[in-house]
């Protein structure tokens, strides 16, 4: 087993399910101390239980917080440092999809709701974690963007706009903080079967969402959904010291979808 995270402190937002949970499980197996953040306290407890199944000795801090609230973000950073003394790696992952609709029918409130979590939340995380990492003189950050952040996604104006913003923040902050020993990159997942994606399919057809899913992945060269653990493997690598020279860039994990068109 790899032990790339022995003695390392890893902070993960959106840790209660999906990509955050899968990444926590992989990183815990490799020796990390975990600070897990989510809006849903029950989901955090579920993740903790799963982590302890694969890493019984793992040190885990659970923090319930809304990433769209800057004060809550500042608090989760401060709690992590108070508990563990540092932050080696940060998976800035929490996000929502929002509703699906034509741009002309997208209400401002709905648009701002998605942006407040997906873009503002990532910005707040960077703002407060990067201060810690700059003062430490080391650190690694992975932001969750999307294939929707590097190409268009129909009927999802808020989501696409927010994820394009995450790409911009990643490139800009990577340029700024590389000189301080901090590497910052983003992942751009495609169709990964998470609770959020399942919810998206159910918005289209609640009764036949599995069939919709089959149609959804048909244009993908690999003809299937990705698995959360496949993303977890990539995140673990990118947060490790092995990926320190990867900076200010975006890495798709989408079965080739973003390169087909």
Return residue spans where pLDDT drops below 50 for at least 5 consecutive residues: none
| Strand count | 7
DSSP helix fraction: 40-55%
CATH topology (level 3) name of the largest domain: Rossmann fold
Q: Give helix and strand order, one letter per element, not per position.
A: EHEHEHEHEHEHHHEH
Q: Structural class of the helices, strands and pairings?
A: alpha/beta
What about the largest sheet? 7 strands, parallel
In angstroms, what is the radius of gyration?
17 Å
End-to-end gap:
38 Å
The CATH superfamily of the largest domain is NAD(P)-binding Rossmann-like Domain
Main sheet: strand order: 3-2-1-4-5-6-7
Assign the CATH architecture of the largest domain. 3-Layer(aba) Sandwich
Number of domains: 2
Pfam family, one: adh_short_C2
GO molecular function, one term: oxidoreductase activity
Protein name: SDR family oxidoreductase
Family: Belongs to the short-chain dehydrogenases/reductases (SDR) family.
How would you describe this protein?
- With 261 residues, the chain is of the alpha/beta class.
- The chain folds into 2 domains: 9-190 and 228-251, 3-Layer(aba) Sandwich (Rossmann fold), CATH 3.40.50.720; 194-225, no CATH class.
- It has helices spanning 18-29, 41-54, 70-84, 108-136, 157-177, 195-204, 209-217, 228-239, 257-260, and strands at 9-13, 33-38, 60-64, 89-92, 139-144, 182-189, 249-253.
- Strands 3-2-1-4-5-6-7 form a 7-stranded parallel β-sheet, sandwiched between helices.
- Helix 1 links the parallel strand 1 and strand 2.
- The longest helix has 29 residues, at 108-136.
- It is globular.
- The N and C termini lie far apart (38 Å).
- 46% of the residues are buried.
């Amino acid at each position: 087993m790899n032990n790339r995270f022995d003695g390392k402190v890893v902070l993960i937002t959106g840790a209660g399910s999906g990509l955050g949970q899968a990444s926590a499980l992989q990183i815990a197996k490799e020796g990390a101390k975990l600070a897990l953040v989510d809006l849903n306290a029950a989901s955090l407890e579920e993740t903790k239980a799963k982590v302890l199944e694969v890493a019984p000795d793992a040190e885990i801090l659970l923090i319930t917080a809304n990433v769209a609230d800057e004060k809550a973000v500042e608090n989760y950073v401060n709690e992590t440092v108070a508990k563990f003394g540092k932050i080696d790696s940060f998976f800035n992952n929490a996000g929502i999809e929002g509703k699906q609709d034509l741009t002309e029918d997208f209400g401002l409130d709905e648009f701002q709701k998605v942006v407040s979590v997906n873009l503002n939340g990532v910005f707040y995380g960077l703002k407060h974690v990067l201060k810690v990492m700059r003062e430490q003189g080391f650190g690694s950050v992975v932001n969750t963007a999307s294939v929707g952040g590097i190409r268009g996604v129909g009927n999802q104006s808020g989501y696409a706009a927010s994820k394009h913003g995450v790409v911009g923040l990643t490139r800009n902050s990577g340029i700024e903080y590389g000189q301080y020993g901090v590497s910052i990159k983003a992942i751009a997942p495609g169709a990964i079967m998470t609770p959020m994606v399942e919810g998206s399919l159910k918005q289209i057809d609640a009764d036949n969402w599995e069939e919709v899913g089959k149609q959804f992945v048909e244009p993908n060269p690999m003809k299937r959904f990705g698995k959360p653990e496949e993303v977890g493997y990539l995140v673990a690598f990118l947060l490790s010291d092995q990926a320190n020279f990867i900076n200010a860039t975006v890495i798709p994990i989408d079965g080739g979808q973003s390169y087909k068109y």
